[in-house]
Amino acid sequence: MQIVILKDSASVAEYGANIFIKQLQKKADSVLGLATGSTPVSLYQGLIAANKAKQISFNQVTTFNLDEYLGLEGTHPQSYRYFMNEQLFDHVDIDKAQTFVPPGDAENPIAACQGYEDQIKAAGGIDIQLLGIGRNGHIGFNEPSSGLMSRTRVKTLTKATIDDNARFFEAGEYQPHLSITMGIGTILDAKKVVLLATGEAKADAIKATVEGALTAACPASALQLHQDAVLVIDEAAASKLTDSDFYKHIEAENQKLMARLGL
Ligand code: PGA
C-alpha cells in the first residue's frame, strides 16, 4: 500500500483529485469506480473545476458506484444516485447513460447484483476505484464479517453505519437498513484503488487497515492484498499509526523518483 499522509482534508481532496485528473488525461475512456459520503465531496469539486477548465473531459467516461440503499429510488434525495447527480454528474460533461449505480429499486435485487457485476465486466473492468472508509473499517457497504472475496450482493447495514448515516435523514423519515454493494472481491479487481480518509474518527479504522491483520473484521484490510492501493489520509486519520514517519519517508522517496522519471 502507498500511504500518503497530508496535513488536512483539503490537501487530501486535492491529492485525490489529481490522481483522477491524471487518469483521465492518460485514458479518456476510463472506467471510474466512485463513492459517496462526505469525504469525496471536495474531490468531486476538484474534478468539476478541472472539467470546467477543460483540463479533463468525462464525455467518454463510464462510472460505477460502490453501493446504493435498497428500497430507495434514484429520485429519492437520500439515494446515492441522487447524491452522485448532485455532487458530480450534473456539473460535468458526462453521458448519464454511462453512469451506473446499483439499482436500489430493483424488483429482484439478487438478480440485479449479478447484472451489476456483468455490466462492470462488459465495460472492461474498473480502472480506478475511489473509496471512503467507515469508522468500523467498511469499504462500500462491506461491513465487518464481509467475505474478503465477496462480489456485488445485498448487505445488511450495521447499527454503527445506520447511526453514522442518520444525519442525512429527517427525523421520522424511513432510513434503509439494507443495501446493494460491490463486494470486496469486486473492489480488489479494480486496477487501482484510492482510499481517502480524514479526521480523528477514522484513525482506528486506518490503523487496522494499514497495521492490523488481514481480517474480515476490518474489510479495508483486504487492500493489503491489492497491488496498487493508495491511502490518502490527513494527519488526524493517521494519528494512531505506529510507523507514520516511515510512511512519510517512503512517500518523499517516491516523489523524488517520480520527479526524476518525469512522471
Ligand atoms: P464518510 O463515509 O465519507 O461520510 O465518512 C465513508 C464511508 O462510510 O465509507
List the SSEs and their pairings.
Layout: E1 2-6, H1 9-26, E2 31-34, H2 41-52, E3 62-65, E4 67-69, H3 80-87, E5 99-100, H4 109-122, E6 128-131, E7 153-156, H5 159-165, E8 178-181, H6 184-188, E9 192-197, H7 203-211, E10 229-234, H8 244-261
Parallel strand pairs: 1-10, 2-3, 2-6, 3-5, 6-9, 9-10
Antiparallel strand pairs: 4-8, 7-8
Helix pairs in contact: 1-2
Bound molecules: 2-phosphoglycolic acid.
Model description:
There is one protein chain. This protein has 263 residues and is an alpha/beta fold. It has one domain (2-261): 3-Layer(aba) Sandwich (Rossmann fold). It contains eight helices and ten strands. It has helices at residues 9-26, 41-52, 80-87, 109-122, 159-165, 184-188, 203-211, 244-261; strands at residues 2-6, 31-34, 62-65, 67-69, 99-100, 128-131, 153-156, 178-181, 192-197, 229-234. It has a seven-stranded parallel β-sheet with strand order 1-10-9-6-2-3-5. A three-stranded antiparallel β-sheet has the order 4-8-7. Helix 1 (9-26) packs across helix 2 (41-52). It is globular. It starts with a strand and ends with a helix. Bound molecules: 2-phosphoglycolic acid.
